[in-house]
């Protein structure tokens, strides 16, 4: 009987099943089938597998040592289908990256230092390079910590997630079309490639305020799905004959800061942050913001002429941008090089190992009978 | 470091984390805290634990050998909170019982026979006795099978789940108030105790048809929560000073069979079944029907004078009742003794082992540091 080893990690507000690349090497040519089977992807509630049946809990990463000098760990991110027996490979996930950093230290894939360890990661989906910095006093890797992230009161191990030279990893340019603002599918948008490719529409141009609750924002998802498709074509991420994907590019709206109330009922004043953001995750509103989307918005905000830069031009610190998301404020630190290019975007996150497991995967069991 | 062994099982349309009683013996006096911590119950998305954040995926069972003659396995069912750091212990779960039967055979807690094995179970929450019958050709316990249940296309190992003498396990009587129909909180209802205590309202008396989709039925949940509280008091399950629970009794509506379309879009004709049923699960419509609720409805249907008996009086087979649920038809076989008392209610189900695991539970980790 084949049992597939896997570790369930929380990274920020996502849950990710982490697989060792060695354990999946026998299934290299059919990873989609094996992951979809393990997660129970065919069922919209993923009842026959280990998936969580939401976009933030239907995620897998395949992790192994990197062969690249200067990089410790390579990982491949999979957004596993929910009600669809398949997997999307087109995007990265920052929450899972924080989990991978901690996992690498906990499993010995990376060697802990003292008092902190920095794991250098490469995302194989997009080529993005990241670093995960974890406190490891005395070289000991913690299971618990007291760091939190917007969207959850749960505590975890603090992980500083740095995106190095994030511009253009997927398309070759921070602004893939060369324009800082353009009209896409009838909306004003900035198309940016940093962390992940993203299409950021001006909220007003799609009839939104950017201050919507998650429930209110759900009504805009179909409109933004059309914009995502148009942006995917414009950015050269897909061709006209390729099937529609729901993961690439990230899509959402940006707006000037305004007063709103978070999903947990906490009021947020306009002067507490710099830019309102509401993002889509697959087929639904994102309850917070994807980390790679946060990098894209932050990088755009540092790039003159883009919508995020214009709408957040009154922020007090040039190197920091505070994003107002449905769950609260996400802060990004951006460093630039001498030429003004984006050097690193860093987000303060939390992660935790939830369980180690062996999965009974029908697609693997059937052939071993 | 304390790691808590656990096995993730699918039972029908539920996912249940199964714990060996021995592994939790060190936490006997604080099971609520340990399970809530393992599941991440405090967060409404259970993001910091292994819970699935829905009523059908936030379930645990604690399993051990029974000391009772004639019983193989005892199990205790826990409905773990979602957005509430706590656990409800007041009810049984038939889906988890099917999982426990298979788990007992797979782990050696019960000895497999040839060609089938019957595991005799006792539910410690309610005192209900059940049997789980699994095909075990040559004494081999399968990991896969081709049985399905309404509400999911996923295949699993067939499990025949029998509820022995189900009447009165919680309250001492099949009809705890002595009445077969009564007015409760302004509705006409049958209060029955079989499998689990249940309050079954006539759909028309609460303004429903009993043919609602899950989405439509959601509007009736607040009304039925009030009825559940009134019924809990009337059945003696709680006292007036006890807190409101959302698990006990089961509550829902029954109605004459009518044409409807299932959640998966399949039309169901009125003549294909005997009684329409729409049940509540905690705070939301149940997508199918809980198995213990199915037993309660079936037992009531065999008991003259109750609402299910009156509304399903034209069923073709006296020993079988076909329940029309939002996901499709659930069929129950009922045997009675010479005196006409309910002997056994049997439901045909499916189960599968999804993963074996060790959980990193903050409540246990904190004290071991």
Automatic annotation (TrEMBL), chains A, B:
Keywords: Isomerase
Family annotation (Gene3D superfamilies): Diaminopimelate Epimerase, Chain A, domain 1
Highest taxon of source: Bacteria
SUPFAM superfamilies with a match to the protein in the record: Diaminopimelate epimerase-like
Single GO term (MF): isomerase activity
Database matches in Pfam families: PrpF
Family indicated by similarity: Belongs to the PrpF family.
PANTHER family from the UniProt entry: ACONITATE ISOMERASE-RELATED, DUF453 DOMAIN PROTEIN (AFU_ORTHOLOGUE AFUA_6G00360)
Name of this protein: PrpF, AcnD-accessory
Organism listed in the record: Streptomyces radicis
């Amino acid at each position: 009987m084949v049992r597939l080893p896997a570790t369930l990690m929380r990274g920020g507000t996502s849950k990710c099943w982490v697989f060792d690349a060695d354990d999946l090497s026998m299934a290299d040519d059919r990873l989609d089938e094996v992951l979809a089977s393990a997660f129970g992807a065919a069922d919209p509630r993923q009842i026959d597998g280990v998936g969580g049946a939401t976009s933030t809990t239907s995620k897998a990463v395949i992790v192994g040592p990197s062969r690249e000098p200067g990089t410790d760990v390579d990982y491949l991110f999979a957004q596993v289908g929910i009600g669809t027996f398949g997997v999307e490979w087109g995007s990265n996930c920052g929450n899972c990256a924080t989990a991978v950093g901690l996992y690498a230290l906990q499993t010995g894939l990376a060697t802990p230092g003292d008092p902190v360890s920095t794991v250098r990661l490469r995302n194989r989906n997009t080529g993005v390079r990241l670093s995960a910095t974890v406190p490891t006093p005395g070289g000991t890797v913690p299971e618990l910590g007291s760091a939190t992230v917007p969207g959850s009161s749960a505590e975890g191990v603090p992980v500083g997630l740095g995106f190095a030279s994030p511009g253009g990893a997927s398309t070759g340019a921070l602004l893939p079309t060369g324009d800082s603002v353009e009209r896409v599918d009838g909306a004003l948008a900035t198309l940016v490639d940093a962390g992940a490719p993203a299409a950021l529409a001006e909220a007003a141009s799609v009839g939104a305020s950017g201050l919507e609750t998650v429930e209110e924002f759900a009504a805009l998802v179909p409109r933004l799905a059309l914009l995502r498709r148009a942006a995917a074509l414009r950015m050269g991420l897909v061709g006209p004959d390729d099937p529609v994907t729901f993961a690439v590019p990230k899509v959402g709206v940006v707006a000037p800061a305004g007063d709103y109330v978070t999903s947990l009922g906490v009021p947020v004043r306009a002067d507490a942050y710099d830019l309102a953001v509401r993002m889509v995750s697959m087929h639904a509103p994102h309850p917070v913001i994807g980390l790679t989307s946060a990098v894209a918005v932050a990088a755009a905000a540092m790039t003159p002429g883009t919508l995020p830069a214009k709408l957040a031009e009154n922020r007090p610190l040039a190197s920091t941008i505070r994003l107002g998301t449905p769950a609260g404020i996400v802060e990004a630190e951006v460093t630039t090089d001498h030429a003004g290019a984006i050097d690193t975007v860093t987000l303060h996150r939390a992660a935790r190992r939830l369980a180690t497991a062996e999965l009974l995967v029908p697609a693997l069991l059937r052939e071993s009978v």
